[in-house]
Q: What sequence folds into this?
């Protein structure tokens, strides 16, 4: 499979769509679900269950330690 040429073709189709040619475009509808609301005690309980420090949870989630502290 030639990924470079597939990428080029994809970009060409995207550019054509941007310029008004929708003949080769695929349209997909995505329904976004409402994210659950968590309270601070929920996060703390989860951390304890997973045996994670605030820093450890931050690392797993890919956020800063300060973000987890703020929760």
A:
């Amino acid at each position: 499979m030639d990924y470079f040429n597939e990428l080029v073709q994809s970009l060409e189709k995207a550019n054509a769509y941007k310029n008004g040619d929708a003949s080769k475009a695929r349209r997909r509808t995505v329904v976004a679900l409402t994210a659950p609301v968590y309270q601070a005690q929920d996060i703390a309980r989860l951390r304890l269950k997973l045996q994670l420090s605030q820093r450890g949870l931050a690392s797993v989630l890919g956020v800063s330690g300060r973000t987890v502290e703020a929760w």
Remarks:
- Residues 8 and 36 are 39 Å apart (CA to CA).
- The mean pLDDT is 90.
- Helices lie at 3-18, 40-50, 54-61, 65-70.
- The chain has four helices and no strands.
